Amino acid sequence: MKRENCEHYPCHFEGQDCTLCFCPFYPCYNRKLGRMLNGNGGKGVWDCSGCYLVHEEEVVREILERSMRGESLESIWKNVMEPLACRL
């Protein structure tokens, strides 16, 4: 799904799937997918602006299918996202 009329489109790349407008795994703290930045007051802020995985159509479909079957986000992360991150 593309929402080209969204004020934030494209937040990652042209043609991205916006079904998951935000990442359900944020913050994942996976160093292949993001990094820690210094925020206000010295607190760290997780930056995953370079991660595109939850905006890929096939990944979104897999996350939604597993979620609809009642699989936990923790399990989806382990079985879907971690293997993809390892390939990067």
From TrEMBL:
Q: Pfam families, from UniProt?
A: zf-like
The chain positions of domain Cysteine-rich small read 2-68
Superkingdom of origin? Archaea
User: What is the protein name given in its UniProt record?
Assistant: Cysteine-rich small domain-containing protein
Q: What is the lineage of its organism?
A: Archaea, Methanobacteriati, Methanobacteriota, Stenosarchaea group, Methanomicrobia
